[in-house]
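pipeline stage [seq->struct] | target=Transmembrane protein 199 | organism=Terrapene triunguis | residues=201
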Amino acid sequence: MASSILAGERLVRAAASASGELGRLPRELRAELEAALGAQAAGRGPLVPFSLLRKLQGALRQAGSPVYLHELLEGSEIYLPEVEKPPRNPELVARLEKIKAKLANEEYKRITRNINCQELNRYGTLADLGRQVRSMKAVVITIFNFIVTVVAAFACTYLGSQYIFTEMAARVLSAVIVASVVGLAELYVMVRTMEGELGGL
C-alpha cells in the first residue's frame, strides 16, 4: 500500500531555497522535510511520507502561505513499493500438482467413458467390420463367378456352333441365346443363395 511519494523537482527546489516558498515553515518541519528529501529510494529519488505532507499542508495554512500543497507536488509520483511474494510451500505445491493430475485424469475418464477399445466407429465394432468384409468378399466372388460363367457359355457356344452353322450371324445369335439362358439360371441361383443367407441372419 502506498504511504509516500517520490518528490518531484518542484518540491525539491522549494525545500532547497531557505528564503523561498517554504521560508515561513517552522524550523523542525523544514529539517524533517530536508532529511526526507536527502534520502534516496532505491536509486529512484527522495521519498516523502504522507504524514510529513499532512504536517506540511497544516503548516502552510497556519503560515498563510500563498503556495498550495498541490502546486508543490507537481511532478511528484505516488511511490508503490514492490511487493515481495513469499516463497511457496513445497508441500502445498506438491499437493496442488497431485490434485491437478487427479482432476485431469477424471476429465479424461469422463471424456472417454463411452469409448470401447473394440469399437471402430459409431456404426459398429471390429467384429461387425469383419462380417461386412466377408459379406462383401462373397458378393464380389459371386459377381465374378457370374461374369466368368456367362462369358464362358458365350465362348463355348460360339466356338461349338461353327460345326452346325456356317454363317457368322447365326453363330453369334446362338451364343447370345445360350449365354442369356445360362445368365438367367445363374441369377436365379444367386438370388436363392442370397435369400438363404439373409434368412440365416
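stage status: PASS
auto-comment: Residues 99 and 105 are 10 Å apart (CA to CA). The chain has two domains: 4-79, 124-200.
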